[in-house]
Specification:
Length: about 500
């Protein structure tokens, strides 16, 4: 008999006094963990199939269920943890690369949580956002170094194309294929209502979403899926994806079984064929090559669309950003190592890249030192969790943030990190019709609008508390930040003082 070396990570605990054997949990679990035993008139759970997505817990009508961490452990060992041992068993059984999804869950420092905000007292009084106007609108794109006027003193409006956003937030790239049609529709409708932008990711643009073009960033990635002139001209901006925080240095892979129907048509690849994005763009090996693609895309869109270049935050990111700022790109997007993804090798996700707070602070400083900060706007993504994270990252020098995981959580994601299986019980990271319909876009878009509305209020409150009435005045204003529990080097890179100074 084959030995099963792995013990389940989670256990479904059912309160049999409350359970009414309605079988909702059985129907709701796409992993088929729950099973009704007719002879015993009882529901049982195969814990080994549970990924802790909480779908059954949330829908159980009698609150009879809870999911707990498995009580079964190996002999305690700080070096050889249960997780390490399980991973070895898994690979010894499969011979395969470990796959996972969403962001890096490991215990690296979260600098956002070691930075505190200022508030006005006595002098420079605070501003009440309920009574006085507060400006959260931002414009993204290259800004002129000098203000020019014509012979009659009028301002010469020779600005490169700009994106106008009602608040410094955009929904980050999530491709149709990695997430469902209904998730995409929720993001597109919310972006339109909020006056912000969402991003197609690398999967092309479904024909039903062309009507949201003014609220859309269309992405061009190494696989060039779904890229054609109409696509490029349909969006408000074009993003060249050079890297992604969740998997820097490697490409992407959407398995053939997910390339069906509309996903295959939108990507312009045959049904059932694997959608493999190569690690590099095969026409880009230098900043000069990147510049050629930037200008090819500008040429294809009559110089009316800003071009964004997205990179992962890696060790030499400041030098790379400096090159991009000189390449003709209008906006740099930097994705930190906690950024989410639909699928990534676990080792890459958890061990490659650097924290976004350090990357951004370094880039902002370098571009200022080189006198090219106004050549580009900077958008930052990679686990922006709250309005406080936004205020802190803007004060560190960002113009705007991308949010991905937080948006998916608003749609119902429970961060079970199982997107790669395609069996998302919340109808988000799946193409299975019976699962997709679990996410109602009428509700999903409203929840996204609510979340952003709440964050916008909170941003105004924090700005008001600091005596700042415009997000533009907060940008790069590091005097508003203090570190707690950070060493000299960390404070130096972040460019902030320690609390108490
Ligand atoms: S959903 Fe709740 S009440 Fe219904 S069978 Fe499952 S545990 Fe019992
Ligand atoms: S995978 Fe989700 S729905 Fe299935 S048993 Fe676990 S928590 Fe419940
Ligand atoms: S999108 Fe779905 S599968 Fe992915 S982490 Fe969230 S709940 Fe789990």
């Amino acid at each position: 008999m084959a030995i099963n070396y792995l013990h389940p990570e989670y256990e479904a605990v059912r309160n049999n006094d409350r359970c009414i054997t309605c079988r909702v949990c059985e129907r709701q679990c796409a992993n088929e963990a729950h099973k009704y035993i007719v002879d015993r008139d009882k529901i049982v759970c195969d814990d080994s199939k549970c990924v802790n997505c909480h779908r059954c817990v949330a829908l159980c009508p009698t609150r009879a269920l809870k999911i707990v961490k498995s009580g079964s452990t190996y002999k305690q060992n700080a070096n050889w943890t249960d997780k390490t041992i399980d991973e070895i068993y898994r690979q010894a059984g499969s011979g395969g690369v470990l796959l996972s999804s969403m962001g890096n869950p490991e215990n690296y420092p979260v600098y956002f949580d070691k930075i505190l905000l200022n508030a006005s007292q006595v002098t420079n009084p605070s501003i009440d956002p309920l009574r006085e106007p507060m400006e959260t609108r931002v414009f993204l794109g290259a800004k002129p170094q000098i203000i020019e006027r014509d012979g009659s003193g009028r301002l010469v409006n020779n600005l490169p194309p700009q994106l106008s956003l009602s608040m410094p937030v955009m929904f980050s790239a999530m491709s149709y294929g990695s997430i469902s049609f209904n998730a995409h529709e929720s993001l597109a409708r919310a972006a339109e209502e909020l006056g912000i932008l969402y991003n197609t990711g690398e999967g092309g643009l479904h024909e039903d979403f062309y009507r949201y073009g003014a609220s859309t960033i269309v992405q061009v990635a190494s696989g060039r899926f779904g890229v054609h002139p109409e696509y490029l001209n349909s969006g408000a901006a074009i993003e060249i994806k050079m890297g992604q925080g969740a998997k820097p240095g490697i490409g992407g892979h959407l398995p053939g079984p997910k390339i069906v129907g509309d996903v295959s048509r939108t990507r312009m690849i045959p049904e059932g064929s694997d959608a493999i994005s190569p690690a590099p763009h095969h026409d880009i090996y230098s900043i000069e090559d990147l510049r050629q693609l930037v200008y090819s895309l500008k040429e294809a869109t009559d110089y009316r669309k800003p071009v964004i270049v997205k990179i992962a935050a890696v060790h030499n990111v400041t030098a790379i950003a400096s090159g991009i700022a000189r390449s003709g790109a209008d906006i740099i997007a930097i994705d930190g190592f906690r950024g989410g993804t639909g699928a990534a090798p676990t080792r890459i996700r958890d061990h490659v890249g650097i924290p976004i707070e350090l990357a951004l602070a370094g880039i902002d400083k370098r571009l200022r030192d080189e006198g090219i900060r106004d050549n580009v706007s900077i958008v930052v993504g990679g686990s922006i969790r709250s309005s406080a994270d936004i205020v802190k990252i803007v004060a560190l020098g960002a113009d705007c943030v991308y949010i991905g995981s937080a948006a998916l959580i608003a749609l119902g994601c429970h961060l079970c990190r199982s997107c790669q299986t395609g069996k998302c019980n919340w109808g988000i990271a799946t193409q299975a019709p019976e699962l997709v319909k679990r996410l109602n876009p009428d509700i999903g878009y409203k929840r996204l609008v609510n979340l952003m509305t709440a964050w916008r209020h909170e941003i105004k409150e924090m700005m008001g508390g600091m005596g700042i009435n415009s997000i533009e005045s907060l940008k790069g204003n590091r005097l508003m930040l203090r570190g707690v529990g950070l060493n000299e080097k960390e404070l130096e890179i972040l460019g902030i003082k320690h609390a108490g100074e």
